[in-house]
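Quick illustration for those who missed Monday's session on complexes.
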Amino acid sequence: MRFGTVTLLHGLFLGPMAGYTDYAMRTVCREWGAEYLTGEMISAKAVCFGDSKTKALARIRTEELPCAIQIFGHEPAVMAEAARRLSCGVEGGVAPTAIDINMGCPVHKIAGSGDGSALMRDPRLVERIVAAVKEAVRLPVTVKIRAGWDANTVNAPEVARAAEAGGADMICVHGRTRSQKYAGKADYRVIAAVKRAVAVPVVGNGDVTSAEAARRLLDETGCDGIMVGRAAVGNPFLFSEIAAMLDGKEPPVITSGLRLETALRHLRLAVEDKGETTAVLECRKLLGAYFAGYRGGSAARAALNRAATAAEAEEILRGVFSTPAAEE
Ligand SMILES: Cc1cc2nc3c(=O)[nH]c(=O)nc-3n(C[C@H](O)[C@H](O)[C@H](O)COP(=O)(O)O)c2cc1C
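Prediction with flavin mononucleotide bound:
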């Protein structure tokens, strides 16, 4: 698939996930076949205030490209200014591939302020925001939407058309409404309807947990790309499994040794990015996901929650992956 200057062979996207898709997770997913990455969502207002934490969130390294930065907010002028500031890259990083606009976050703190999924209720505002951001930057501008606000207002095709009218270069649809949050099933019929409604590329998202699920998403929606969110946590291998399926090849064999090596690499990248103390603290939930289903997993997760150094975390990981027959 193609949009802007981006050309992707398999159309495999890692979904942005606040608190998860930092440099370490993005890099590990890239190494296992995620072709396009997006950072964690960033407040447009905070960018305009020059907040330093926000700058760290917006930092992208060369090897991550293509990688988008996602912003949230609802005021066209603020969104445009934030996009303009971020479009050249923050100190110590490179310019992002695209600016993505969050129109899907269901969390009350965000949607209650008119941001994220609340934008789904106002297609005219969607068009104005996209147009303002588009005007402010030379990069492709993409949007990530949901099926709608709730079951009675499933309007993703209308919102997608509004975004396209504003100049959006690509549209990603998570097939759940804001009311569903992350429960229930993603409705692929809505993604198919969005694909029929617009001419720009459409990326489908929701419940891709296996190569078979990715196949179903493509077949049922005709979408151009596949975005994987939660299933990539502790399982970046899924991207290579989907790529193999698309190439008509046998899936790679993911041994315990490979899982251990990848989890250790994840930890090392996090330490390099954030320093040991923060990395070990923030990595706990991510590292624990690498050994989901392994015998002794819950005890190891409890031990990880107490680990304070990278060496301790490494020892726990080595322990849980050490028995070849560990998988239940
Ligand atoms: C913990 C968590 C954080 C998320 N953060 C973001 C975010 O910052 N921006 C965004 O557009 N979507 C965010 N999402 C939504 C995911 O990108 C994705 O749309 C959703 O999880 C559905 O895809 P999946 O079924 O493959 O997980 C988040 C999801 C989770 C579970």
